[in-house]
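queue> holo job accepted (flavin-adenine dinucleotide)
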Amino acid sequence: MAATVHVCSQSQLPQCTPAVRAAQPAAATSSTLPSCTVTARPSGLHRRSVLAPAQPRRRAASLTAPVVAAAAASSAGASSAADLEVDVCILGAGIIGLCTALTLLRADPGLRVALLDRQVPCSGATGAGQGYLWLAHRDVGSPLFQLAAESRAMWRELLAPAVPELTTAAVEWQEVGSMLLSSTADEAAGLAARCQALAAEGLAAQLLTAAEARRREPALQLPAQGAALLLPSDLQVNGRATAAALLRACEAHSGRFTALFEEGALRLAAGESGRVDQVQTQARRVRARRSIVVALGAWSGAFLADQLADVRWAGAFRPRRGLLLEMTAPAGMPAVSHGLMEVSYTSHYSRQAIAGGKGAQGKGDGDSEEGIDITFTATTSASGSLLVGSSREFAGYSRDAPEHIVSAIMQRAAHFLPALAAVRWQDISVRAGPRPFATAGGPTVSPVPGVEGLLVAAGHEGSGLTMAPATAELVAAYLLDQPSRLDERVVEALRCPFGLSIEDYLSM
Ligand SMILES: Cc1cc2nc3c(=O)[nH]c(=O)nc-3n(C[C@H](O)[C@H](O)[C@H](O)COP(=O)(O)OP(=O)(O)OC[C@H]3O[C@@H](n4cnc5c(N)ncnc54)[C@H](O)[C@@H]3O)c2cc1C
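queue> job finished
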């Protein structure tokens, strides 16, 4: 089928910028969340000026605190009235930071928590996320499958109906199931094996022929040799609604929670004991008696590399731009009732894909035609709009929405949902966000070795919305010195560094 897409210039793409509050350090509220879906705009979010002054980088073999301690000495000035003292300071108000803040507030009624973001919540990858919390596309038996499964169970607990700020309605929880789609006989065989593995885990997976899949999803078109794997228990949320609800739930812990938005972490500093316990922002010094948690998504690697003067961090996490398109389905097109995803998505976390990404695009600050991956996904939001994804590429921190990528996403989508060929270009909104890609293949949730007081929770790539509650639970377990509810194998897999040797990092 020849898919056609109406193409127009970049300037015709709808433009808008997330709502930006006046730059002042007062605590913000959930009403400051970006309210617009379109984040296509020039790059420049990651300017060096907002990070610590350039530190001489060294190819250190150990992660130790002296560089941070030296920064403390140089930045030690008179304290200001705006200075703040808390137990935990979380850097980054994406889904990981927000979920961690709420989990800590609930876990210990004595804890005071500050959440810091140089913009507002959802300014990073979280604002672009599609919102599926799925198991179907993960490798059954892997630590990341287990992490996702445990995390999903924790989402249900977080959304206890007794908490008015954080309900299933507030996050637009939809138990609609997922369908993984194959177009070839080979892929269909892979789906059959996946179906068996999921069933062995006790999940009610079902393999459908192309005709059966179309009966359940009339807008869908698969070749006769294609198939679909239906997993009815898969579900989805609205990522931005979820972030807003988490922020409201944090704010309900008044007196113990401080949100500092439009206030970036400039540098970390250590106290006399050598423990890293201070964050310097433009407006104040935040002292964290217990810990500082780095949850800066794709920015985590650059931030830690600068602060710890350790180049390994810069290679550990990198931005992988993703575009997601939002539109109204064309008149006459049957509504997409399940979450849909082509099966090739499953390869994104393979070793080969990771190595290919590194090889094709250098160190993540370039872009190349052959390095752009387009994989079809589709979900229908609670409000009825159609979300169609998505692209993956190493394009630095750019939030641009290049026309040819938008066009390629639409063409790929029309291969599976032919009616989409009729969508008018001006009816497409684009979300762009930097997925926090982890070179090691999965997130790191762990104390930073050799740096007392510092934890990192980053690198969730395309799974942060799914994995946020389990990530937060593990951070809380470390901080409160309690056993984690996560399986020990999962905890190990998330430890830092994640599966790569020092030599691997240094050779990047
Ligand atoms: C197109 C797309 C679709 C996706 N779909 C899904 C999906 O369906 N399901 C799923 O589970 N996941 C999905 N993801 C992935 C998910 O969105 C991410 O894994 C997740 O949002 C990462 O959250 P985070 O909190 O780690 O980072 P982010 O959301 O990027 O947050 C990091 C924050 O740090 C702030 N920051 C940066 N530097 C500083 C500084 N120096 N000081 C203070 N603050 C700073 C930024 O402003 C930002 O708000 C998708 C991602 C994309 C791009």
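queue> The longest strand covers residues 317-327.
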